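Notebook p. 47: complex prediction with zinc ion.
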Amino acid sequence: MSRDNFSPAGGRYSRISLVTDLDLPTIRLSRICVVGAGALGNEVLKNMVLYGPKKLTVVDNDRVEKSNLGRCFLFTSSDARAGRKKADAAIESLGRMNEEVELEALASDARELDDEFFSGFDAVAGCVDNISSRLHINSNCYHRNIPYVDGGLDGLMGRVQVVIPPSGACYQCSLNATHMAVLDRDFTCTGKEANIHRRRVPAEPSVSAITASIESLEIVKLLSGIQDAGIMYIYNGRKNELDRIEVQIGRECDVHGGVNSENNEA
Ligand SMILES: [Zn+2]
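Predicted complex, structure tokens below:
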């Protein structure tokens, strides 16, 4: 890594290096995984690549569609016409932004990734649109002591949760009975995902960018050692308000050995 990049006068990272709260050398040596390359993922990926981490991995199994173009600036009309994999199209754009970053595209369902995969990263950003993927990433990251920052969007509302094992609450700790009912509804009694109609979540580009910025900032903060575990942020775009909530460890959280966990059922 050239020291010229940190020079206050003209290097690529010169202005970021002036932010003394952040540990830029550590961020630049980090391997970061972003799961989901939709509206939120596009924005998180953009922020991450600007920091110049050692490696940035994009995981998404979907293909670019025309309906993505209104909120995903990494994709082009030709990507949509060709039906390119989102992960491939994303890293092509990211490579044009910063050629110094090792970029990796993985066309996979988040729920097919195991804890060994996640152990290859210093931080994981969740930008997915369903609870089962979030639970899968959360439990695998927690098991391997990998920090996980989860993001979600719904219209003018955004949510970011910071999970830093082994301390503090995890994503599953934040779920209530309604969430679990949605999860149950999504799966058949054989454990396979049910083919049901999903609500199309409303997405607004500015709220995507704001929420992704909070998620990205939490990632670079935790890599710099200045973030508390188990915190959730709720952004309300209608009022431009941000709430900071300390999530309590859930009594019934499987990850935390709760009353429903296999350990306790034995
Ligand atoms: Zn938990």
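Notes: The first helix runs from residue 24 to 28. The chain has nine helices and eight strands.
Next step: compare against the earlier run before touching the bench.
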